[in-house]
Amino acid sequence: GAGVSQSPRYKVAKRGQDVALRCDPISGHVSLFWYQQALGQGPEFLTYFQNEAQLDKSGLPSDRFFAERPEGSVSTLKIQRTQQEDSAVYLCASSLGRWRGNQPQHFGDGTRLSIL
Amino acid sequence: SQQGEEDPQALSIQEGENATMNCSYKTSINNLQWYRQNSGRGLVHLILIRSNEREKHSGRLRVTLDTSKKSSSLLITASRAADTASYFCATDADSNYQLIWGAGTKLIIKP
Lengths: 116, 111
Description:
The structure holds two protein chains of two kinds. Chain A has strands at 5-7, 10-13, 19-24, 31-37, 44-50, 53-56, 65-68, 75-79, 88-95, 106-107, 111-115. Chain A is mostly beta strands. In chain A, strands 2, 4, 5, 6, 9, 10 and 11 form a seven-stranded mixed β-sheet that branches. A four-stranded antiparallel β-sheet of chain A has the order 1-3-8-7, with no helix packed on it. The mean pLDDT of chain A is 96. Helices cover 0% and strands 56% of the residues of chain B. Chain B is mainly β. In chain B, strands 2, 4, 5, 9, 10 and 11 form a six-stranded mixed β-sheet that branches. Chain B has strands spanning 5-7, 10-14, 19-24, 31-37, 43-50, 55-58, 61-66, 71-76, 85-92, 99-101, 105-110. Chain A binds chain B through residues 4, 33, 40-45, 48, 55-56, 58-59, 91, 93, 99, 101-110, and chain B through 2, 4, 30-31, 33, 40-45, 48, 50, 88, 90, 92-93, 96-104.
């Protein structure tokens, strides 16, 4: 199917390591979002891309978190010097047009990150 | 930060019964969306209701919105085992690109 694809599905890293999480949005989707979801909680917004432009990164918890979408399609979320509190599920979502709040978001199945 | 609160946090009912979940939010909105999340999976969009709408239907789903009370409800009629999932409401904020999510209602349908 042509849904949102995230890789890897599971990632285990030692504290202090860098990790990179990948998102392949639905082809042609302009908007791309990254969320962090703790167990038993709703998603927390991290950042938003409109094509290649990162228009909102206000949800990134620290300067250890960095996201990019250089060609307006695939996006990577990078976490440097990981800490235990970074353990969570990281979800990527895309939507068709520029974000105006009135469109559905299409989600990948997420990457479950565990920091030991 | 999360603006929405779902109520109840967990709900367990028999197959065939109706399930009602509620969502309250804090600030004015343009749109409210409901999503379903099966365990270990991503979220799936169910329905969107605009702030000038009071009720919307989609199959076995009925959503209401009361902007004066800043609340919404999701009704699933004639529940099935496959409806077992967590359900989240999400609202848009006027001035940025974020959807604000509640903590969800965990629904269990007993066969």
